[in-house]
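Good morning C.,

I know you're traveling, so I'll keep this short. The sequence:
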Amino acid sequence: MDENKSGDTTSGNVTRREFLKRTSRFSIAALGGAGFIAHAAGNPDGATGSAIARGTVFLDANRSGRADGQRGLPGVLVSNGVDLVETDEAGEYSLPVTEDTIIHVIKPRGYRTTIDDLNLPRFYYIHKPEGSPDDDFLYKGIAPTGPLPARIDFPLYEQEEPDAFEVLFTADPQAYNLQHTSTDERIVVCAHIPMVERPGVDEKHGTPEFPELLQLLSKHPYTLSFSGHHHINMNHFYGEETGYRAPGGALHHHCNLTAASGSWYRGPLDRYGVPFSPGRDGSPKGYALVRFEGGDRYRISLKALGCSADEQMSVTLPAEVERAKLAGTKVQVNVFSGSEKTRVSMRVDEGPWIELEQNSTVDRQYSALRQRSEEHPDAGEGRLRRAITTDHIWEAPLPAEIADGWHDVTVVCKGTFGERWTAKRTFLVVSDPAALAPLRQGTRSPREV
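The C-alpha coordinates, ready to paste straight into the viewer:
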Protein backbone atom coordinates (compact mmCIF):
# COMPACT_ATOMS: atom_id res chain seq x y z
CA MET A 1 0.00 0.00 0.00
CA ASP A 2 1.77 3.13 -1.26
CA GLU A 3 0.91 6.66 -0.24
CA ASN A 4 1.28 9.45 -2.78
CA LYS A 5 2.99 12.31 -0.91
CA SER A 6 3.18 15.04 -3.49
CA GLY A 7 1.39 18.37 -3.34
CA ASP A 8 0.89 18.90 -7.06
CA THR A 9 -2.03 21.07 -8.11
CA THR A 10 -4.77 19.99 -10.47
CA SER A 11 -4.58 21.09 -14.07
CA GLY A 12 -7.24 20.62 -16.70
CA ASN A 13 -8.93 22.01 -19.76
CA VAL A 14 -11.48 24.15 -17.95
CA THR A 15 -11.29 27.89 -18.56
CA ARG A 16 -11.10 30.21 -15.57
CA ARG A 17 -14.58 31.56 -16.32
CA GLU A 18 -16.05 28.06 -16.58
CA PHE A 19 -14.23 27.01 -13.40
CA LEU A 20 -15.70 29.98 -11.55
CA LYS A 21 -19.19 29.07 -12.70
CA ARG A 22 -18.77 25.43 -11.72
CA THR A 23 -17.37 26.30 -8.33
CA SER A 24 -20.30 28.53 -7.46
CA ARG A 25 -21.58 25.48 -5.61
CA PHE A 26 -18.29 24.93 -3.76
CA SER A 27 -17.45 25.80 -0.18
CA ILE A 28 -14.57 28.19 0.27
CA ALA A 29 -13.26 26.17 3.15
CA ALA A 30 -10.16 26.20 5.28
CA LEU A 31 -7.06 24.85 3.57
CA GLY A 32 -6.91 21.61 5.49
CA GLY A 33 -7.80 18.01 5.02
CA ALA A 34 -6.85 14.48 5.84
CA GLY A 35 -4.36 11.80 5.01
CA PHE A 36 -5.54 8.93 2.87
CA ILE A 37 -5.36 5.17 2.69
CA ALA A 38 -4.95 3.87 -0.86
CA HIS A 39 -6.01 0.25 -1.25
CA ALA A 40 -4.28 -1.54 -4.10
CA ALA A 41 -6.25 -3.05 -6.99
CA GLY A 42 -7.14 -1.42 -10.25
CA ASN A 43 -10.24 0.58 -11.00
CA PRO A 44 -11.02 0.12 -14.72
CA ASP A 45 -11.86 3.05 -16.94
CA GLY A 46 -15.51 3.63 -17.78
CA ALA A 47 -17.03 3.91 -21.21
CA THR A 48 -16.23 7.63 -21.38
CA GLY A 49 -12.52 7.10 -20.74
CA SER A 50 -12.72 8.25 -17.13
CA ALA A 51 -12.51 6.17 -13.98
CA ILE A 52 -14.39 6.38 -10.70
CA ALA A 53 -12.60 6.96 -7.39
CA ARG A 54 -14.33 5.51 -4.34
CA GLY A 55 -13.60 5.57 -0.66
CA THR A 56 -14.69 6.37 2.89
CA VAL A 57 -14.17 9.35 5.14
CA PHE A 58 -14.08 7.92 8.66
CA LEU A 59 -13.38 8.72 12.30
CA ASP A 60 -10.08 7.05 13.09
CA ALA A 61 -10.92 6.38 16.75
CA ASN A 62 -8.34 3.60 17.19
CA ARG A 63 -5.58 5.51 15.34
CA SER A 64 -5.01 2.60 12.98
CA GLY A 65 -5.37 4.67 9.83
CA ARG A 66 -7.77 2.04 8.44
CA ALA A 67 -11.49 2.33 7.86
CA ASP A 68 -12.18 -1.33 8.72
CA GLY A 69 -14.82 -1.47 11.46
CA GLN A 70 -14.70 2.28 12.14
CA ARG A 71 -17.51 4.81 11.86
CA GLY A 72 -17.92 6.57 8.54
CA LEU A 73 -18.63 10.30 8.68
CA PRO A 74 -21.66 11.50 6.68
CA GLY A 75 -21.94 14.90 5.03
CA VAL A 76 -18.20 15.46 4.53
CA LEU A 77 -17.21 17.19 1.28
CA VAL A 78 -14.84 15.44 -1.13
CA SER A 79 -13.72 16.89 -4.47
CA ASN A 80 -11.74 16.13 -7.61
CA GLY A 81 -11.06 19.82 -8.22
CA VAL A 82 -14.13 20.26 -10.42
CA ASP A 83 -16.94 18.20 -8.90
CA LEU A 84 -17.94 18.26 -5.24
CA VAL A 85 -19.86 15.53 -3.40
CA GLU A 86 -20.97 14.82 0.16
CA THR A 87 -20.32 11.47 1.80
CA ASP A 88 -23.41 9.35 2.42
CA GLU A 89 -24.63 7.99 5.76
CA ALA A 90 -21.82 5.42 5.77
CA GLY A 91 -19.15 8.01 4.93
CA GLU A 92 -18.85 6.72 1.35
CA TYR A 93 -18.14 8.87 -1.72
CA SER A 94 -17.47 8.39 -5.43
CA LEU A 95 -16.01 10.85 -7.95
CA PRO A 96 -14.89 10.69 -11.58
CA VAL A 97 -11.16 11.06 -12.27
CA THR A 98 -9.03 11.69 -15.35
CA GLU A 99 -5.38 10.87 -15.90
CA ASP A 100 -4.49 14.03 -13.98
CA THR A 101 -6.70 14.40 -10.90
CA ILE A 102 -6.30 15.15 -7.22
CA ILE A 103 -8.91 13.67 -4.91
CA HIS A 104 -9.11 15.67 -1.69
CA VAL A 105 -11.29 15.91 1.39
CA ILE A 106 -12.49 19.23 2.82
CA LYS A 107 -12.32 18.77 6.56
CA PRO A 108 -15.41 19.73 8.58
CA ARG A 109 -15.19 21.86 11.68
CA GLY A 110 -14.25 19.95 14.83
CA TYR A 111 -11.91 17.53 13.05
CA ARG A 112 -8.28 17.50 12.07
CA THR A 113 -6.39 15.65 9.40
CA THR A 114 -3.51 13.24 9.38
CA ILE A 115 -0.28 15.23 9.90
CA ASP A 116 2.97 13.99 8.38
CA ASP A 117 6.52 14.19 9.74
CA LEU A 118 6.88 17.72 8.36
CA ASN A 119 3.72 18.83 10.20
CA LEU A 120 1.83 19.12 6.91
CA PRO A 121 -1.83 18.08 6.58
CA ARG A 122 -2.36 15.03 4.35
CA PHE A 123 -5.71 15.64 2.72
CA TYR A 124 -5.32 14.50 -0.89
CA TYR A 125 -4.41 11.68 -3.26
CA ILE A 126 -2.82 12.42 -6.66
CA HIS A 127 -3.92 10.22 -9.54
CA LYS A 128 -1.37 10.73 -12.30
CA PRO A 129 -0.65 7.29 -13.77
CA GLU A 130 2.00 8.48 -16.22
CA GLY A 131 3.55 11.03 -13.89
CA SER A 132 4.74 14.49 -14.91
CA PRO A 133 6.57 15.03 -18.24
CA ASP A 134 10.30 14.59 -17.76
CA ASP A 135 12.16 17.14 -19.87
CA ASP A 136 15.37 17.16 -17.82
CA PHE A 137 13.93 19.67 -15.38
CA LEU A 138 16.12 20.57 -12.41
CA TYR A 139 13.19 19.90 -10.08
CA LYS A 140 11.28 16.81 -11.03
CA GLY A 141 7.51 16.63 -11.03
CA ILE A 142 5.22 13.81 -9.97
CA ALA A 143 6.44 10.23 -10.30
CA PRO A 144 3.97 7.85 -12.01
CA THR A 145 1.29 6.87 -9.50
CA GLY A 146 0.15 3.75 -11.34
CA PRO A 147 -3.44 2.45 -11.59
CA LEU A 148 -6.21 4.06 -9.60
CA PRO A 149 -6.55 2.30 -6.23
CA ALA A 150 -9.75 0.40 -5.56
CA ARG A 151 -10.42 2.69 -2.58
CA ILE A 152 -9.03 6.00 -1.34
CA ASP A 153 -10.00 6.42 2.32
CA PHE A 154 -9.51 9.56 4.41
CA PRO A 155 -9.17 9.29 8.23
CA LEU A 156 -10.22 12.26 10.38
CA TYR A 157 -9.61 12.93 14.07
CA GLU A 158 -11.73 14.92 16.50
CA GLN A 159 -10.29 18.16 17.85
CA GLU A 160 -11.43 21.36 19.51
CA GLU A 161 -11.38 24.42 17.29
CA PRO A 162 -11.72 27.89 18.84
CA ASP A 163 -13.70 30.70 17.25
CA ALA A 164 -10.62 32.93 17.39
CA PHE A 165 -7.43 31.77 15.69
CA GLU A 166 -4.42 33.14 13.82
CA VAL A 167 -3.13 32.15 10.38
CA LEU A 168 0.18 32.98 8.71
CA PHE A 169 -0.24 34.07 5.10
CA THR A 170 2.54 34.46 2.57
CA ALA A 171 2.40 35.03 -1.17
CA ASP A 172 1.98 33.40 -3.51
CA PRO A 173 -1.16 31.55 -2.39
CA GLN A 174 -2.90 29.33 -4.92
CA ALA A 175 -6.53 29.05 -5.87
CA TYR A 176 -8.91 27.07 -3.75
CA ASN A 177 -12.53 27.31 -4.06
CA LEU A 178 -16.89 27.39 -2.46
CA GLN A 179 -20.69 25.42 -0.73
CA HIS A 180 -22.53 24.38 2.27
CA THR A 181 -21.44 27.56 4.09
CA SER A 182 -23.97 29.43 6.19
CA THR A 183 -24.22 33.20 5.88
CA ASP A 184 -22.93 33.78 9.40
CA GLU A 185 -19.58 32.16 8.61
CA ARG A 186 -16.65 33.97 7.05
CA ILE A 187 -15.67 33.03 3.50
CA VAL A 188 -11.99 33.40 2.57
CA VAL A 189 -10.86 33.10 -1.06
CA CYS A 190 -7.17 32.50 -1.84
CA ALA A 191 -5.88 33.02 -5.38
CA HIS A 192 -2.57 33.57 -7.11
CA ILE A 193 -3.50 36.33 -9.57
CA PRO A 194 -4.90 39.53 -7.97
CA MET A 195 -8.61 40.10 -8.35
CA VAL A 196 -8.02 43.52 -9.90
CA GLU A 197 -5.36 44.99 -12.17
CA ARG A 198 -3.18 47.70 -10.69
CA PRO A 199 -2.26 50.79 -12.75
CA GLY A 200 1.49 51.12 -13.02
CA VAL A 201 2.20 47.39 -12.98
CA ASP A 202 3.84 46.34 -16.24
CA GLU A 203 2.09 42.94 -16.40
CA LYS A 204 -1.61 43.08 -17.23
CA HIS A 205 -2.70 40.49 -14.73
CA GLY A 206 -6.08 40.53 -13.04
CA THR A 207 -9.21 38.42 -12.72
CA PRO A 208 -11.88 39.47 -15.26
CA GLU A 209 -14.44 37.31 -13.44
CA PHE A 210 -14.04 39.23 -10.18
CA PRO A 211 -17.48 40.92 -10.52
CA GLU A 212 -19.05 37.48 -11.07
CA LEU A 213 -17.34 36.17 -7.96
CA LEU A 214 -18.62 39.14 -5.96
CA GLN A 215 -22.14 38.42 -7.18
CA LEU A 216 -21.83 34.81 -6.06
CA LEU A 217 -20.62 35.95 -2.64
CA SER A 218 -23.32 38.58 -2.18
CA LYS A 219 -25.41 36.45 0.18
CA HIS A 220 -22.47 36.35 2.58
CA PRO A 221 -21.63 39.53 4.52
CA TYR A 222 -18.29 38.27 5.84
CA THR A 223 -15.93 37.77 2.91
CA LEU A 224 -12.23 38.28 2.37
CA SER A 225 -9.84 37.41 -0.45
CA PHE A 226 -6.06 37.11 -0.74
CA SER A 227 -3.71 37.02 -3.72
CA GLY A 228 -0.01 37.41 -4.53
CA HIS A 229 1.88 37.29 -7.84
CA HIS A 230 3.11 40.91 -8.05
CA HIS A 231 5.07 40.76 -4.76
CA ILE A 232 3.47 43.99 -3.58
CA ASN A 233 0.86 44.96 -0.98
CA MET A 234 -2.63 46.15 -1.94
CA ASN A 235 -5.75 46.57 0.19
CA HIS A 236 -9.07 47.53 -1.37
CA PHE A 237 -12.71 47.32 -0.36
CA TYR A 238 -15.57 46.62 -2.79
CA GLY A 239 -19.31 47.10 -2.50
CA GLU A 240 -22.40 47.55 -4.67
CA GLU A 241 -20.60 49.48 -7.42
CA THR A 242 -18.59 46.33 -8.23
CA GLY A 243 -21.41 43.82 -7.80
CA TYR A 244 -21.01 42.88 -4.13
CA ARG A 245 -24.47 43.48 -2.65
CA ALA A 246 -24.09 41.90 0.76
CA PRO A 247 -26.61 42.27 3.61
CA GLY A 248 -26.20 45.43 5.63
CA GLY A 249 -23.97 47.07 3.02
CA ALA A 250 -20.94 44.98 4.02
CA LEU A 251 -17.78 45.40 1.93
CA HIS A 252 -15.53 42.74 0.42
CA HIS A 253 -11.88 43.17 1.39
CA HIS A 254 -9.29 42.11 -1.20
CA CYS A 255 -5.70 41.89 0.07
CA ASN A 256 -2.73 41.29 -2.20
CA LEU A 257 0.37 40.34 -0.21
CA THR A 258 4.04 40.89 -0.80
CA ALA A 259 6.29 37.83 -0.82
CA ALA A 260 8.90 36.53 1.61
CA SER A 261 11.44 37.08 -1.19
CA GLY A 262 10.32 40.66 -1.84
CA SER A 263 11.72 41.56 -5.26
CA TRP A 264 12.84 37.98 -5.85
CA TYR A 265 15.88 38.40 -3.54
CA ARG A 266 17.49 40.99 -5.78
CA GLY A 267 19.39 44.22 -5.22
CA PRO A 268 21.91 45.57 -2.65
CA LEU A 269 22.75 43.57 0.46
CA ASP A 270 22.01 44.38 4.08
CA ARG A 271 24.54 44.05 6.93
CA TYR A 272 23.90 40.31 7.07
CA GLY A 273 24.70 39.82 3.41
CA VAL A 274 21.04 39.27 2.48
CA PRO A 275 19.42 41.36 -0.29
CA PHE A 276 17.17 44.14 1.04
CA SER A 277 14.86 43.15 -1.80
CA PRO A 278 11.81 45.29 -0.99
CA GLY A 279 8.74 44.99 -3.16
CA ARG A 280 8.47 47.44 -6.03
CA ASP A 281 5.84 49.32 -4.01
CA GLY A 282 8.43 49.98 -1.29
CA SER A 283 7.04 47.36 1.11
CA PRO A 284 9.64 45.22 2.87
CA LYS A 285 9.74 41.51 2.16
CA GLY A 286 7.72 39.51 4.68
CA TYR A 287 4.40 37.86 5.44
CA ALA A 288 1.06 38.53 7.11
CA LEU A 289 -0.57 37.27 10.28
CA VAL A 290 -4.35 37.12 10.01
CA ARG A 291 -6.41 36.76 13.17
CA PHE A 292 -10.02 35.67 12.81
CA GLU A 293 -12.23 36.41 15.80
CA GLY A 294 -15.63 35.24 14.56
CA GLY A 295 -18.33 37.05 12.60
CA ASP A 296 -17.08 40.22 10.95
CA ARG A 297 -14.06 40.55 13.24
CA TYR A 298 -10.62 39.93 11.78
CA ARG A 299 -7.28 41.70 11.67
CA ILE A 300 -4.36 41.55 9.21
CA SER A 301 -0.86 42.40 10.50
CA LEU A 302 2.15 42.57 8.22
CA LYS A 303 5.48 41.32 9.52
CA ALA A 304 8.61 42.55 7.76
CA LEU A 305 11.42 39.99 7.85
CA GLY A 306 14.19 41.02 10.24
CA CYS A 307 12.16 43.94 11.63
CA SER A 308 10.06 44.54 14.71
CA ALA A 309 6.30 44.05 14.54
CA ASP A 310 5.84 47.83 14.92
CA GLU A 311 7.68 48.61 11.68
CA GLN A 312 4.61 49.21 9.52
CA MET A 313 5.58 52.32 7.56
CA SER A 314 8.55 54.18 6.11
CA VAL A 315 9.02 57.95 6.30
CA THR A 316 11.05 59.71 3.61
CA LEU A 317 12.29 63.30 3.59
CA PRO A 318 15.65 64.92 2.79
CA ALA A 319 18.21 65.03 5.56
CA GLU A 320 18.89 68.69 4.75
CA VAL A 321 16.47 71.24 3.28
CA GLU A 322 17.10 74.77 2.05
CA ARG A 323 14.70 77.15 3.77
CA ALA A 324 13.53 78.57 0.45
CA LYS A 325 12.51 75.09 -0.69
CA LEU A 326 10.54 74.06 2.41
CA ALA A 327 7.09 74.48 0.86
CA GLY A 328 8.09 72.32 -2.11
CA THR A 329 9.62 69.54 -0.03
CA LYS A 330 7.23 66.70 0.67
CA VAL A 331 7.27 64.22 3.50
CA GLN A 332 6.38 60.82 2.06
CA VAL A 333 4.91 58.06 4.23
CA ASN A 334 4.52 54.56 2.84
CA VAL A 335 2.04 52.60 5.01
CA PHE A 336 2.72 49.05 3.88
CA SER A 337 -0.79 47.78 4.66
CA GLY A 338 -2.51 51.09 3.95
CA SER A 339 -5.96 51.41 2.44
CA GLU A 340 -8.68 54.01 1.97
CA LYS A 341 -9.44 53.52 5.68
CA THR A 342 -5.93 54.60 6.73
CA ARG A 343 -5.28 58.09 8.14
CA VAL A 344 -1.83 59.72 8.42
CA SER A 345 -0.86 63.01 10.08
CA MET A 346 2.39 64.74 11.03
CA ARG A 347 3.76 67.73 12.86
CA VAL A 348 7.13 69.43 13.00
CA ASP A 349 8.45 69.81 16.55
CA GLU A 350 5.48 71.01 18.64
CA GLY A 351 3.66 72.62 15.74
CA PRO A 352 0.10 71.95 14.52
CA TRP A 353 -0.90 68.54 13.16
CA ILE A 354 -1.04 68.30 9.36
CA GLU A 355 -3.18 65.71 7.55
CA LEU A 356 -1.32 63.89 4.78
CA GLU A 357 -2.99 63.16 1.44
CA GLN A 358 -3.20 59.66 -0.02
CA ASN A 359 -1.50 59.65 -3.44
CA SER A 360 -0.74 57.15 -6.18
CA THR A 361 2.98 57.47 -6.79
CA VAL A 362 6.27 55.59 -6.48
CA ASP A 363 8.19 55.04 -3.24
CA ARG A 364 11.23 57.33 -3.17
CA GLN A 365 13.29 55.01 -0.97
CA TYR A 366 12.78 52.11 -3.37
CA SER A 367 13.73 54.34 -6.32
CA ALA A 368 16.97 55.33 -4.57
CA LEU A 369 17.79 51.70 -3.78
CA ARG A 370 17.12 50.74 -7.39
CA GLN A 371 19.48 53.46 -8.61
CA ARG A 372 22.12 52.09 -6.27
CA SER A 373 21.59 48.62 -7.73
CA GLU A 374 21.94 50.06 -11.25
CA GLU A 375 25.19 51.80 -10.39
CA HIS A 376 26.70 48.87 -8.50
CA PRO A 377 25.04 45.65 -9.73
CA ASP A 378 28.03 43.54 -8.68
CA ALA A 379 27.76 44.71 -5.06
CA GLY A 380 24.56 42.77 -4.50
CA GLU A 381 22.28 40.30 -6.22
CA GLY A 382 21.80 42.15 -9.49
CA ARG A 383 19.51 45.03 -10.41
CA LEU A 384 16.14 45.77 -8.90
CA ARG A 385 13.19 46.14 -11.25
CA ARG A 386 11.67 49.57 -11.74
CA ALA A 387 9.38 51.02 -9.08
CA ILE A 388 5.63 50.79 -9.60
CA THR A 389 2.89 53.22 -8.71
CA THR A 390 1.18 52.36 -5.44
CA ASP A 391 -1.70 53.99 -3.60
CA HIS A 392 -0.57 53.19 -0.04
CA ILE A 393 1.54 56.36 0.07
CA TRP A 394 0.63 59.58 1.90
CA GLU A 395 2.34 62.95 1.32
CA ALA A 396 2.33 66.54 2.58
CA PRO A 397 4.76 69.46 2.18
CA LEU A 398 6.79 70.76 5.08
CA PRO A 399 5.56 74.04 6.63
CA ALA A 400 7.21 77.04 4.99
CA GLU A 401 7.82 78.98 8.22
CA ILE A 402 10.30 76.60 9.89
CA ALA A 403 13.41 78.31 11.30
CA ASP A 404 16.97 77.31 10.51
CA GLY A 405 18.39 74.44 12.56
CA TRP A 406 17.54 70.86 13.52
CA HIS A 407 13.90 69.75 13.66
CA ASP A 408 11.94 66.60 14.37
CA VAL A 409 8.96 65.49 12.33
CA THR A 410 6.55 63.13 14.09
CA VAL A 411 4.27 60.93 11.98
CA VAL A 412 1.21 59.20 13.41
CA CYS A 413 -0.74 56.62 11.44
CA LYS A 414 -4.12 55.05 12.16
CA GLY A 415 -4.22 51.77 10.25
CA THR A 416 -6.98 49.91 8.43
CA PHE A 417 -7.97 48.02 11.59
CA GLY A 418 -7.59 50.93 13.99
CA GLU A 419 -3.93 50.30 14.86
CA ARG A 420 -1.75 53.26 15.83
CA TRP A 421 1.87 53.61 14.76
CA THR A 422 4.31 56.46 15.36
CA ALA A 423 7.64 57.33 13.73
CA LYS A 424 10.06 60.25 13.99
CA ARG A 425 12.68 61.67 11.65
CA THR A 426 15.22 64.48 12.12
CA PHE A 427 16.15 66.98 9.41
CA LEU A 428 18.18 70.17 9.09
CA VAL A 429 16.94 73.51 7.69
CA VAL A 430 19.48 76.07 6.40
CA SER A 431 18.98 79.42 4.66
CA ASP A 432 22.40 79.39 3.02
CA PRO A 433 23.57 76.07 1.55
CA ALA A 434 27.15 77.26 1.93
CA ALA A 435 26.63 77.21 5.68
CA LEU A 436 26.05 73.43 5.65
CA ALA A 437 29.74 72.55 5.87
CA PRO A 438 30.48 74.29 9.18
CA LEU A 439 27.14 73.21 10.63
CA ARG A 440 28.04 69.59 9.97
CA GLN A 441 31.25 69.80 11.94
CA GLY A 442 30.83 67.95 15.23
CA THR A 443 27.09 67.74 15.03
CA ARG A 444 24.70 64.83 14.85
CA SER A 445 23.47 63.16 11.69
CA PRO A 446 19.81 62.87 10.78
CA ARG A 447 18.47 59.83 12.56
CA GLU A 448 15.45 57.69 13.04
CA VAL A 449 14.03 57.75 16.59
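Safe travels,
E.
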